[in-house]
Amino acid sequence: MYSVEADNLRKHYGSNEALRGVSFHVGEGEIFGIIGPDGAGKTSIFRILTTLILPDGGEARVLGLDVVRDYHEIRNKVGYMPGRFSLYQDLSVEENIRFFATLFGTTLEENYDLVKDIYSYLEPFKKRKAGALSGGMKQKLALSCALIHKPDVLFLDEPTTGVDPVSRKEFWNMLTRLKQQGLSIVVSTPYMDEATLCDRIALIQKGRFLDTDTPSGIISKFTLPLLAVSGPQMPSLLRDIRRIPQVFSCFAFGDTHHVVMRTDGLSDEALTDTLSTALHAQGHSDFSIQRISPNIEDCYMYLDTLEEHS
């Protein structure tokens, strides 16, 4: 039995189609990541799976329980950490976690072993009001409250958004330890670099999954040549690259432009020469071109461009 199953989930908000037939499953003890930008549909999926809203179509099950019929049972078996910090800001750290433990008929002492790796960071500040905590500490408190009733599945909606890099790393280390304890985790994030920390991922855009696979599996499907181009006039370079017929797509990545080329049966060297010749013809001279390997973000942009073309 899968921990989570979704089949053709659909959701509308008025005329806005937030989910357009989303299907996936999550195995026991697996970290499953839903990767995509704001507005792609991630939060709608989480709210359906945690029984906070109803789907307009399709079915979903958590631990074999239907999210519509068995919502009460599901709520006792899952932990949910929403994207926005939603704990009581005027209560202390300790008061918040004890309050949530009471809601589920347990105590901090009874389940301390489950949260001790996380709560140990918070104990020196247990009398501090939650509203006065830093972003990283708020994150740890929210995770402790989501775990205090010993859930079987943990849903984390953009848990590291707005958090410093050190706290992000600590948080993912915690998730790895929780996974090792057998907990199934569904996590969403707009950060493409966090995708590689998941066992499997789904890339989402405009309410539809572009692909679902392991991170390495998604990268292995990227077979078109990928070139990094840089030069002194980056805005005009980006504009002119996009005008070249042999270019499938081009996006700015930091201090370079990542260019996906149409192969047309040409070798890598011939494609590089084609791009270079076209740029020289447009008046560019001081630029560099090199072949690079794709990452998850490159795969996402490529699949999103394919979706737009279709």
UniProtKB/TrEMBL annotation:
One of its GO terms (molecular function) is ATP binding. Pfam families: ABC_tran (PF00005). SMART domains: AAA. Keywords: ATP-binding, Nucleotide-binding. InterPro entries: AAA+_ATPase (IPR003593), ABC_transporter-like_ATP-bd (IPR003439), ABC_transporter-like_CS (IPR017871), P-loop_NTPase (IPR027417). Residues 4-231 form the ABC transporter domain. This is ABC transporter ATP-binding protein.
